[in-house]
Amino acid sequence: MAGRTTSRYAGDTKSRILDAAETLFIDCGYEAMSLRQITSRAEVNLAAVNYHFGSKESLIHSMLSRRLDRLNEERVKLLDRFDQMLGERLTCEHVLGAMFIPALRLSRDPRVGGKAFLRLLGRAYTDPSAFIRDFLNAHYASVAVRFFDAFQRALPHLPREELGWRLHFAIGALSGVLAGADTESLIAEFSQGKSMNDLQLIARLASLMVAALKAPLPDASQLAMFAAVLGDATDTDAEADADSDASTATAAQNSQHATNDAANEAHRDADDSASSSASRGNPGMSAASAHVHAHTHAHTPAHASLDGESRGSAIEACPLQQVWHGAT
User: Fold this and answer.
1) CA distance 55 to 11
2) How many helices, marked H, and strands, marked E, lie in the chain?
3) pTM score, whole prediction
4) Short-list 176, 125, 116, 132, CA closest to 31
5) What are 16-70's pLDDT values in tens digits?
6) Dihedral pair phi/psi, residue 201, rounded to 5°
7) Which residues contact residue 171 at a Cβ distance below 8 angstroms, ignoring those fewer than 6 apart?
8) CA angle 219-223-227, nearest 5°?
9) How many domains does the chain have?
10) Do 163 and 273 share a structural domain?
11) Of 182, 217, 252, which residue is a domain's last?
12) Which of 42, 136, 168, 216 could form a disulfide with 20 if both were Cys (CB 3.0 to 4.6 A apart)?
């Protein structure tokens, strides 16, 4: 009895750690989650994580595998069934159905996924971590090849490279939606509060992807149209840059004029003061020394004072002048 109790407790501990890691991965992504966060959420110590998994990387492997292994097994099983039923008549809709239907079924079963399952799936396929990408590529490469080959048979008009790009864009967009926290509320909003069964949901998910995958390759007229759009965008950018350069030049010139006017005004004031002092016979400042004094202050930045207080605006022209002339 004691042995079974200990075993059950250990199983509960392992499940709590996996559940905590799954929740944090969905909410934060691989790079932002830490072992400290996992142990805190699972209410276990670090030794328990090391005992059951050995490392954060091994824990994440186990967390993803317990959900995605079964998902991909069900996907391949359903695709095999469609292949046996239809053979060469396999359609794009059937291949997409083999991808979506098992995911929806698992999301309806709280024992193997539940409501968070679709978000986990979306996060796994959109997480930017190289660690997650490498794991998916290594463990589910055969599944990816199996589905890619099925899409090629269903869409023989598409070159392999073009099909790869379209699948990348379509599945990436879908995964981004699934990874969002508001997917359920969006579905409820779009359906205007009406219940939506799996058939209706799959039809909506697949319709956009089918249209994207089946679209014909762009012909010469479409390429010419896009070339014109790019040309117009380039011309607009060039005009904007020219207008910006002209505005900068005008601002620099105006600032330079303001600086020169301030300097000339300082010269005149100083000369007037010197003349006045000289005519009064001021022994402390002759006309010549007053002119030197005025010349010195006329070339002192207008914003600088002995106490360091900023005054005037003439110096504000300097940064623009430095940029304009390439000075540093």
Assistant:
1) 18
2) 14, 0
3) 0.63
4) 132
5) 999 999 999 999 999 999 999 999 999 999 999 999 999 999 999 999 999 999 9
6) -65, -45
7) 125
8) 170
9) 2
10) no
11) 217
12) 42
